[in-house]
Amino acid sequence: MSLLPQQAYLVGGSVRDALLHRQADYLDLDFVLPERAIATAQFIAQQYGAGFVVLDADHQIARVVFPNATVDFAQQVGPTIYSDLHRRDFTINAIAYSPHSETLLDPLDGCADLARKTLCMVAAENLEDDPLRLLRAYRQAAQLGFSLDPNTQHTIRTLAPALGHMAAERVRGELDCLLSLSEGSTLLALAWQDGLLQTWLPEVERAELDRLATLDQLAAQYHERWPSYSQLLHSWVKEQTTPGLHRSWLKATKLSQLLPPDLARAEATLARLKYSRAEQQAVLSMLKGWQYLHRHQGATLLPPGQQYQLFKMAGAAFGAVALLALTHGVPEALILPLIERFLSPNDPIAHPQPLVTGKDLVDGLALKPGPKIGELLEAIALAQAEGLVSTRAAAMAWAQQQLP
Fold first, then answer.
1. What's the predicted TM-score (pTM) here?
2. Residue 305 and residue 348: Cα distance in Å, rounded?
3. 168-177: per-residue pLDDT in tens?
4. 173 falls within a domain
């Protein structure tokens, strides 16, 4: 603390969480300084051999990155710390702590709102200045288990159309956080009721939002009953992700329910919200798999050939497809055996190992390379799934029979 000026204050979420006795694995600290914020951050980074980056030169904001913490330094807005706190979003985030005097500054009674577990705006104009704060209110309420102050909620409803003018990446970040929390489903429904989602997700109706809660309930049940399946739902495809995007198959499943049923329009919505190509493809594979299952699922388990097609179509998203099916009321007796197959890495239908290669067909059957080889390999894979062939020799003989 000796490297910080006397007028430095710790502010924001870290102060709030400390007062709530909330612990985090990764510290995210925000300091407000009266002057020389960037220079101070750079000096501290040099002293500790930490990473340093200027976030906003005009507003004097810089970041120091430690192995287990990120520390932001910002120049206070206004002539005093009090004026800075009056420009913040919610009272519970407008509490400052002086590390030198070890005292709190709480000019907006944020501590009282913490005790009441209520999210209360500092001022309507602060929300209007940054409309992302409108959606952030519901995200923070979900994270903290707080309710919204009625006057704050009324103001949000009034300002709701302004969220449509925000950068898609910022909206997506808040949406991802809400989708990643089981408590977020209720708050997401409330945000929709208050008019915040209509610009970005215009086709969402109450039924889809109610389904999110059902997805959460089912995921919680399988967490207890079937840990390996639960672990799958909370995993994600191999992809380099930005911290804070909260990616998981469960989150992606919930996201899929907020999209138009038409795949082209669903893809357009994902692109508009700036989801990565990998996440777009994962969600679309899920929707394709669910639509295939919905078309073919009768009163009995799918025959092996259709199971093969389903697993191939869904790919890594099959666990999410299964959860969607259960949410839509498909009996467990028809879905759980498919999940068992998918969780078994050597299952011949969910994870078939090719019996022959294209080169085998070209060399062994005197065929020319071309599209026909791919079609024949696919036909062999289907025959393998249906139990018609199980060895390389049988596959080659079967392929020979298919030729004119």
1. 0.87
2. 11
3. 999 999 999 9
4. yes
